[in-house]
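Re: weekly structure request thread

Next one in the queue (290 aa):
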Amino acid sequence: MRFTKMHGIGNDYIYVDCFRNPMPHDPAGLSRVVSDRHTGIGSDGLILICPSDKADARMRMFNADGSESEMCGNGIRCVAKYVYDHGLVRKPILTIEAGRGVLKLELEIAGGVVKQVRVDMGEPILEPAKIPTTLSGERVVNASFPIPEDARCSGWFDECGLDPRITCVSMGNPHAILYCRQVSKVPLEIVGPMFETHKAFPRRTNVHFVEVHSPGEVTMRTWERGSGITLACGTGACSVTVAGVLSSRTQRRLLAHLPGGDLQLEWSETDNHVYVKGPAAEAFSGEWPE
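Done, posted below.
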């Protein structure tokens, strides 16, 4: 099986061109094997680039644990880069079918290759049942959240200055956002799984901890559902943009600093869509003996 490893600001996936290669017979199992950073190729998951009868291409995304996810903001930028750079479709505006529908992507091209991509991520989903979360309210914004007492007593809670209120957003996949004074002090490896598998999230959730520098700039760290700590999360950054506006912490245009790099975001008042712009890069290609 021919593969290409790509990343969007460090959020790395193994990509398989299913235009030119057969579909893997067990993509969930394949994702678990190739994602292993010790015995596999090493990645946050597997993404299949497939033909589509609705768009220029279709993206199927599997987390490192084999679970299939609806959407990946960094991954879809890399799909667009692959589709253009490898000659599948050569045009500056592409449409990609994903779990949440068909998205439009605008390519910035230099020297014949894609450098950056701006993605129309569509409208945020704010109805609790559709996110989904069992937390009550018309919208879950600055909502009380029952953080376990043992987590509070471990010291990190006060050290990072966590605001225990939570805001929930879906960008086709579920996100929970919390704010703190020092995001570097959050022990993601401890608290990430606690939020991901909490009973309030029936399909699990991605969780993001955010430090606000100004109304237009934040730093965020992420625990991704099914993949753990990642260097970046595009749908997460979109959700943080929406959460910041809803909770009156940040503006509609936002620069988000993630461990792997920066993303430019906007929640448009005109069409209610969230837009994200960032780089996409190809690391290497190879053969996997499936």
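The two ends are 6 Å apart (CA to CA). The longest helix spans residues 73-85.
Next request, please.
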